[in-house]
Amino acid sequence: MNDERKRSEEGNRQQPTTTAAVVDVLIRNTTDGFIILFAVWTIVAHVIVWSGTGFTWLFHLSPLVVIAAMLWFVPVWRAALGAEIPASVLLIAVPGWTCFSVCAIAIALTAALVELDMFPYAWIGAVVFLLAMRFRPKTDRTHMPSLRAAVSQAWSDYALLAATLILALMAVLLVCRPDPDDSLYLNMAVSVLDAPDQPIFASDTLHGISGGNYLPTYRVHSFELLVALLARVTGRSPIEIAHLWLPLAAVPLSVFALARLFRTLIPDIWAWATMVCVVLLLAVRNTHCIYGNFAYVRIFQGKSWFVLFAVPLIIAYAIEFFRTPDRRNWIILAAGQVAAIGLTANALYAAPLVAAFSMLACSQPDRCSTRRLLAGVTTSAYPMLMVLLVALAMRRSGLNTAGVGMSCPVEATTFDFLGRSGAVWLWMFALLGAWALVRSGWLQRWLLGYSLLFTTLCLSPLWDELLMPYVTGSHLLWRLFWTIPLPVFASVAICESTRRLLTARRLVDRLPGLLVLALILISLRSVVHPEGATSIAKAPLMLKVQEAPYRFAKTIVAMSRPADTVLAPEEVSTWIPTFRGHPRPLVSRKVYVQGLLNVFMEHVDTRDLQARLALSDYVSGTARTDGVGLDFERAIRGYPLSLVAVFPGNPWYREIENVLRDAGYRVKQLSGIQLFQAPDGRGGDDDLPALPDASSSTEKALADTARHVETRLREDQQPAGYWLTSHTQSTTFDHPLVEMNTFLTSMLVDILDPVAADAGLDGSLKQARAYLAGQIEANGLVRYLGRPDSPGTPAPRALITPDSDDTSLVWRITGGKEDLLPGVLEILKSYRTDEGLYRTWLAPREQLIGVDPGTDPNPPDIAIQMHLLMFLSKSDPPAARSLYTALRGAIARNSLWVYYQKTPLVPILRQADLLTAGYPLVLPRSRLQTSVAGQQPWVAACRLIAQYETGTDPTPSASQTVALLKVLADDGVASIRTSPPLMYHNDLSAHVRRFYWSEDLGYALWLRLYFENARAHPAAP
Question: 3-state DSSP helix/strand/coil percent for the chain, to nearest 5?
Answer without folding.
Answer: 60, 5, 30
